[in-house]
Design goal:
six-stranded antiparallel beta sheet; about 30% strand; globular; 5 helices; four-stranded antiparallel beta sheet; alpha+beta; about 180 residues
Length: about 180
């Protein structure tokens, strides 16, 4: 397991599996190189469209619910949220099916075989994990966020007052884009 996973996008699934995803091309490259060197089989997710983290369940044993949560997390932290899409298509595949050519730019990898795909709704729930504010796919609280019209800075300020957490901590836990509280 990556020792410094908190520098990436991360959360623990409902069953306690760690999921990580890159915040940018450099981090996607680091994560995928780690997976390729590790040689253990794991599942990886990425949106159909460019501009997504590679999200990985860091376990070879996971449930369908863990996979669904990873797919939602991947979709929510992709450009789909920033582009105000309510739904996005996320693909999943196994680590054995990825490759990297020297001509590929940083953070870009090829996939030999997509195992499946799913269209997911962009919606996250608040939960404290490892002492930090997180917005995750599991329905863990009544505070649900989705795409809306409120700028990230203002939304983070409003949520920080409700949760009694720092605005900076909330900003770091949110995807890029505009927000609303779910109805």
């Amino acid at each position: 397991m990556l020792q410094n996973y908190q520098k990436y996008r991360w959360f623990f699934t409902s069953s306690g599996k760690l999921v990580i995803g890159g915040k940018n091309a450099k981090q996607n490259e680091e994560i995928m190189q780690y997976v390729m060197k590790d040689k253990s089989e794991c599942v990886i997710t990425h949106t159909k469209e460019p501009g997504s983290p590679f999200c990985i369940i860091l376990s070879d044993k996971y449930s369908a619910k863990d996979l669904d949560e990873c797919l939602i997390f991947c979709g929510c932290f992709s450009k789909s949220w920033k582009n105000n899409k309510k739904l996005t298509e996320v693909h999943w595949f196994y680590s054995k099916d990825i490759y990297k050519k020297k001509s590929m730019k940083e953070g870009t990898f090829g996939v030999r075989k997509i195992s499946d795909k799913k269209t997911i709704e962009l919606k996250l729930y608040y939960k404290e994990q490892e002492g930090k504010a997180r917005f995750i796919p599991a329905k863990t609280s009544k505070l649900c966020i989705t795409i809306g019209g409120i700028e990230k800075e203002l939304f983070a300020y409003q949520i920080s007052k409700i949760l009694k957490r720092s605005k900076q901590e909330i900003i770091e836990a949110l995807p890029s884009g505009r927000f609303a509280i779910c109805k």
